[in-house]
Amino acid sequence: MTFQEALKRYRLHMLAVIPLLAGIYYLIVPDMVMDWYKDENYSHGFLVPLIAGYFFWQRWPELKTRLVKPDGLGLVVLVLGLLQLLLGWLASEYFTMRSSLLVLLAGMVLYWFGREILKGMALPLGFLIFMVPIPYIIYDMAAFPLKLFVTKVSVAFLQLSGVVVMREGNILAFPNITLEVADACSGIRSLLSLLALAVAYAFFLQTSNLRRWIIIASAVPIAIATNALRVIVTGFLAQWWGAKAAEGFFHEFAGLMVFALAMALLVAVGALVKGKGGGSVGSVESVGSGEAGKRESGVSASTLDRLTASTDARISASRFAVPAVLLVVAILFMHLHTDRAVPANKPFSEFPRQVAGWTMTDQYEFSANVLNVLKASDYVSRQYKGADGSTVNLYVGYHSGGKDSGGIHSPKHCLPGSGWYEVSTRRDTLSVPGGSLNIVRAVYQKDSNKELFLYWFQMMDKSISDEYSLKLTEIQHSILHQRRDQSFIRISVPFEGDEARATATAEAFIRDFDMVLREFLPK
Fold first, then answer.
1. 339: left (phi over 0), alpha (psi -120 to 50) or beta
2. What single string gives the DSSP state of each residue in 179-219?
3. What pairs with residue 441 in β-bridges?
4. Does this model's pTM top 0.85?
5. pLDDT digits (tens, 9 = 90+) for 143-163
6. CATH of 348-520, one of 3.30.750, 1.10.4100, 1.10.4160, 3.40.1000
7. Among positive and negative, which fits the CA dihedral 233, 235, 236, 237?
8. What is the pLDDT of residues 227-285, one digit of tens each?
9. Which residues, listed in sequence order, are joined to residue 462 by a DSSP beta bridge?
10. Staple partner for 400: which of 286, 377, 472, 522, CB 3.0–4.6 Å?
11. Domain residues of the chain, as ranges?
């Protein structure tokens, strides 16, 4: 039986699976589409399904004649996809949940139709990964070094050209203006879109796979180079015409022009490397498929069709019933498994204003917009002054794990997003009266201001110093205790040159407040 015949014969079976997929992803996919709409980094997501659909349509004349040979390995892939979905759901990890849809689709294709069909659909299915926003932890890991690199290259070129400019991190200081090289100018934003378009463009061309990979790889230096050019041009204009030339309409227009230039360079690379040879776009050899394959087998076409149809008739019910049952189980688990909201031991409004030699000097209240993003169940944000005059900022955000409580926003995303860049960071342990804490020691800088941050995540009686362990602990607690309450504790000390003194101040503050924090945070 060919792929086309299978789709026609079992169309009702496959249509029955669609409501089950909708029952699982009815919140996950629309939320992803909203990210495309709100986040300029992923606005290309609207085009990805259309391009993937074109790839499938382009392969259809060859794909429809391939023989269907169901593969039991597809069931393993399907189960792994469901586990990925459920683990991501337990940990509120959006990339894991969203990308699980692609694994499920690949598993179903393999289980129902076999490896040859999956090979033919590899490009359309694989291309869909570009519609899934990457985790911001990974995004910032790439954006930060790119910002520094683009800044260094741009400053070096401007200085060689006679422009008076100084660099401090990702900050450009001109005599009349100070500019920040933000994420949009780092190349990471255009790189995400350019990579997706580079893959599409490479497979549109009639060329070899090696040359396609060259085209795709070229998207990285093109994105970096064009954004460096954007910073350089902005620097020249800021030097000659002042701040207005680097803001407003010109800044947005420059972004559009840079991306247009990047696309033109990508097309130029394709024209250089595609060569004269190569098969048709996305062509894949099909050995032993269609009528020719039937004749080569030594069995008449009609006999082979009857044998294939007979085999399909015996296995079709289980082939479509098993995935349906697994999807129903996943739906029931996601709708019946609930994590209970655990309130803090005390409301943070009762957090003491004076502890040991520390006295509160200021208290910060967040706006409704910030709270809507933060989604903390309760929080305290204060400044304390020690007996020696040292100043320490404390933030404790408690998330109860209930429906209205969101996950913790990592400093690795929030601090760079507000203009701070990382100078150094390391994980460590700190002895406190209640035992020991796993903490992160980090120094960040913004303009000429440096600040030491000591922070950690707390879940029940466990202190955690990295985001990945936090997610694993969240899954564990959700399964074993049906609770995902967690806290984020951050202590920051501004300093000029004496980092050791700032470290000693922060550590002393944590030791003095350790037992107080334990009174408020549930075990």
1. beta
2. EE--HHHHTHHHHHHHHHHHHHHHHHSSS-HHHHHHHHHHH
3. 426, 454
4. no
5. 777 777 888 888 888 888 887
6. 3.40.1000
7. positive
8. 888 888 877 777 777 666 556 556 666 667 878 888 899 999 988 887 654 444 444 33
9. 459
10. 377
11. 3-133+291-336, 136-273, 348-520
